[in-house]
Amino acid sequence: MSVHLVPTAFDSQPRKSSLRNRKSDTDTISTSTTSSPSLSSHDPSENELSSSSDTEPINISVEKLKQIEKMESNPDFLWMTTEEPHRSRRMAILKAHPEVRKLMGPTLLTVPIVFLVLSIQLTSAYLLKSTYPFSWKFMLAAYAIGGTTNQNIFLAIHEITHNLAFKSIRANKVLAIIANFAIGIPYAMAFKGYHIEHHKFLGEDGIDTDLPSKLEAIILNNVFGKTFFATFQILFYALRPGFIRSQKPTIWHGINLLSILTFDAILVKLLGWNALVYLVMSSFFAGSLHPCAAHFIAEHYLMNGPLPTKEEQLKSGQFQTEEDWLIRGLAQETTSYYGWLNVLCYNVGYHNEHHDFPSVPWTKLPELHRIAQEYYDPLPSHSSWPYVTWRFITDNNIGMFSRAKRTERGEKIEDELWSSALESTTCASAVTKNNDVIVDQVEEETPNTDDEDEIAYMSDTDKSKKA
């Protein structure tokens, strides 16, 4: 399988570009995504490691050589040398729309929904306590009711992980553990650490455990393997961190473990083993071939095809500028879905919006999209989650290798790159008009990049002294 490695465009000044010829729905595109690390900065054709009679040799650091070696040993992933795209777009949107800051912060609406869904699961467990677990009635209920409600619980914990239910970190952790009762297996506190890393280090090999390993990709990159992965993906997400990046347990991990085991023991004592089997089976279906579970694949798998090489680009004239070409590669790293299944899933389909602003709660993600629609409307989006799963399994051009990876954080992306992609001169002038005001505000509220990241991701560090 061929690999195209070409220099990044970030060395040049941003230029006006357009997204107007881009497909708006990734489900209608059928080109390959499994090879073409088109955004990697290493190009063997440029003879970087050797000199010729009319050129001077280019010195490459040991760290860079290690990066090149790692990319060449995993040629089928889309290897990026830039940072993840969400930080720069977040800053661009804040400059254009300072009012977005008003959307940030917790929403108490999550709390009653958690208890409502938990009560539905416990009621279902009670009604099925005398039903044989492998009967069609039991399994249908576990799939249709339990799979849907536990997917909702997974995503409630996802919201709570970003401290978006209460202002207090401790209160959020307690609520996450209570929500965890519906799952039957300790999950909430382990998920928290890995998920914050997924945001901060999106695509970084060895850190972002949402990424499939090379071994997984090799073994499962066929129709049978992809079907197996889509059916048992909840197990992959549960077990992969232990092999890729184990985290040090905290007191909260212990509290989570003890709470769930105690709850399970009480449940079995009162209702019998079938009730616990129902909760665990529901959790399995929630991360299996379920319409709502399709978001796991839809969010970050590259369904929009590879970038052409620079030579192919020049011949076809598909992109007007290098920025057009580069933005397409960045834009397909995360893909949103705006369909009705978001009603059941805490609007997790608004995934570009969520990664841009993890501090904005699920209730306000549609408003965020409306405010910054000039940034989001041109991006690829899915029209159907179930179709994403179907296409992932059946399309030979899409597979386990269809992910963007980085060896490290990568080169900084200037927010002007996203602003330059806007077609509207009105929006562009608004960016300039508000630029000085919002920069002052950002500098005042976030003294350095680390603080800015903590506030952006709503992790625990930024409020630890206040909780």
From TrEMBL:
Location relative to the cell: Membrane
Spell out the molecular function terms from Gene Ontology. sphingolipid delta-4 desaturase activity
> Which GO BP terms sit in this record?
ceramide biosynthetic process
**What residue spans carry the Low complexity bias annotation?**
27-42
Return the EC number: 1.14.19.17
Question: What's one GO-annotated cellular component?
Answer: membrane
- The residue ranges crossing the membrane are 108-128, 134-153, 174-194, 218-239, 251-270
Coarse class of the protein's main subcellular location: membrane
Disordered: region residues: 1-56, 439-467
Q: Which residues form a coiled coil?
A: none
Regions of biased composition (Acidic residues) lie at: 441-455
Keyword Disulfide bond set for record: no
Q: Which SMART domains match?
A: Lipid_DES
Instruction: Read off the InterPro entries from this record.
Output: DES1/DES2 (IPR011388), FA_desaturase_dom (IPR005804), Sphingolipid_d4-desaturase_N (IPR013866)
Output the superkingdom of the source species.
Eukaryota
**What PANTHER family does its record include?**
SPHINGOLIPID DELTA 4 DESATURASE/C-4 HYDROXYLASE PROTEIN DES2, SPHINGOLIPID DELTA(4)-DESATURASE DES1
The record's family statement is: Belongs to the fatty acid desaturase type 1 family. DEGS subfamily.
Protein name per the record: sphingolipid 4-desaturase
